[in-house]
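Note on ligand handling. Small-molecule inputs were canonicalized before submission; formal charges were left as drawn, and no protonation-state enumeration was performed. Where a ligand contained multiple stereocentres, the stereochemistry in the source SMILES was retained. For adenosine-3',5'-cyclic-monophosphate, this procedure yielded the string shown in the input block below.
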Amino acid sequence: MLKCSICSIISRAIRRAMCMNSRRNSGETVYQELQNPNGFENVTTIPLKSDTHSTTVAEIDVDESNTNGKHENIFLFAKPPRKNQHHQPYKQMNGRRFLTLHKKRRKKLTTSNLLTFPALLDDAYNGQVQCLLNDAANWKFNVFTLDLLSGGHSLPVLCVHLFNVYGLIDFFRLDIVRLWKLFKLIEDGYHSTNPYHNSIHATDVTQAMHCFLQEKKIIKYLEPIEIMASIIGSVSHDLDHPGVNQPFLIATSNHLAQLYDNTSVLENHHWRSAISCLLESGIADQINSDIRPLLHNQICSLILATDITRQGEFILKLHEYTVNNSLNMKELSHRHFVLQMALKCADISNPCRPWDICQIWSNKVCEEFFQQGDIERKLNLPVTTLCDRYSNTIPKIQMDFFKYVVTPLYMEWHLFLNTILSNNIMHLLNTNRLKWEELADQLNTKLMIVDDENISIKSAKSIRLKRKYSLQNSNLFKNTKVELFGGGGNGGNNDLIMTNSFKMKLNRKRGSLPIIKNSSTITSPTNHDTSLLLSDYKDGGGLLYFIDDDIDNVLCCPLHEAQPMFITNDTAPLRNDMNMNSTTNSKYLCRQQTFPPIQLQQKYISKNFSHNPQNPLNSVSSFLKKHRNNISPSLISLNEEKHSYYHQILMTTTNNTNCNNNINNSSNSNNKTTGMFSLGAFKPRKLKVKSQKENFIVSNDRRSSAPIITSKIVQSNIFFRRKSIPFDDCNKSKEFLNDSIHLHN
Ligand SMILES: Nc1ncnc2c1ncn2[C@@H]1O[C@@H]2COP(=O)(O)O[C@H]2[C@H]1O
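Structure output:
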């Protein structure tokens, strides 16, 4: 029977953990309170004002060799010890672990998986988990399968297994329940709403680290404390990651950026959160106080090394060691450096995994980038190029990441290891890179939209792609199914090129156009690119779908929901003066809702699409070739081979839109117009506003291609009429549009 003692330990631990006092949804988000800082060196406890809410700041000097010899101070906030708790070092049970607040941080209940996978209740699943775990040192390990089979708890399951495999439980005489609690705390600390920086990524990195630790060159020199630090460091290296990057935190004057002087902001937060979990779980108590500081320092230094901006420094150092053959694994500092390199490689190991896994991670990380871009756009911040879903594509991001980040690091790592594992990794890296290049080439010349089995492309002056999705998430469009294509509001070519099956579908279907009617002051966007690149990472296809931007995406996410979460002026440029105020006062932490759940409602237009030869890419390609004469010559003349071709089509579209809007807007010096609200040339939408209590203005952010709503929308003031038109009749569609314009002008 495959079910072994570790399984029963785990299931017992799960049961016990479930009974523990959970702080689910507590919303408490500051660092672990520190009752008694014993065990740390050079700790001073500075009481602050002695009012009822007084806190204590524990200042701890940490010898961190990787911050250029600089000593850092840890600031851990603490409530004054309760009377009866003086004898309980590190313990506090009203703890607040993290500095970010994320209401949807936690996963859905484990039991909800049972609806989908009732067999999770079977013992067979435990057996399968065990089987998977036995394969945990295999580079082709699939962490998503483990997550599924473990009911969404791959992180604690893998880590307890690894502690067992390395004999750490016995060596340190660790209490299994505390150990389980440690990893549960860490798991809970990850935001499951992040597409990429979530607990599965942490598990994946830990598994990759495990593979590297297995290398003979490394494992035979490691002390148990170093192995323990490596596992805890790996699993908590992105703990409480908010799903946005450091520049974003700086730009929005986030309290973490201030606390850490804009330097390794997230990494500093991750390692402090990790230590906080060690303390809270009680595992720290079980480590001999002689070696506890070493453990903390190693975890800290390992996590700080994952700061991607320090990559060059590490590569150079490893190169020197390898070339001079001067790495002495018997020296603690050298061993530690190798562990740092191993963690760095593990952190960006997803491009070196088998293609199906690599693809999933790539899509996830890009989705997270794009979500950040969406927030930046809403906050009127400059949209980071990498995060702009309108101008970037997943294959392009991947190609750059492979070329500039992953390959240089792994080449050095391979030079150092030079084993079967490293050879396999380099091989996978190479084949994956070729696949991304292939996909990028396809996308360069093909505009596509996928709708289960159909594709529709419109070309010429206004390239427009069909969209089809149910707007069920939208309050405004509840139960309304919209299928739009064509439009031609700018008088552009309305030719629609469709596959036969799609034409048939059109003949059957009638679409509904929500109508906007404005009494007087709805303004029109001026320079709006109506296209949205949307990656459907659920499919793991790694492809981009090109659909229209969606007015109701904007309407359903009024800016006022997200904006108060950030300290930023509406029009604030990126703040470069963050260092200015980094006096001691700025270290003071305040509670702040930092990272709101992502509000943007994306509509995935395809659930079933995956990249396969059946997809009508070829027809798109041949269409573009055939109709290239209809496409703006200036567009063709611009670099048609590469990404810019794809991008330029969008730009041409935008320009046409501008022309159209300029005509409409001629009477308005502010480039805003009253009248029919239409998102560029392609949005035959009319909002009807009942009263004029609060109007909204849609203006254009010229730095990006998306509209920015600059004042509030009162959704209740807007209602929609439906008007059905046969979509296959372009002329009727045009008439309808003209009527609408006439009606509302
Ligand atoms: N497949 C990928 N494509 C692009 N960027 C990636 C990929 N994997 C990891 N990254 C980036 O690499 C960074 C490593 O550090 P972080 O985890 O902070 O954030 C990570 C991502 O920003």
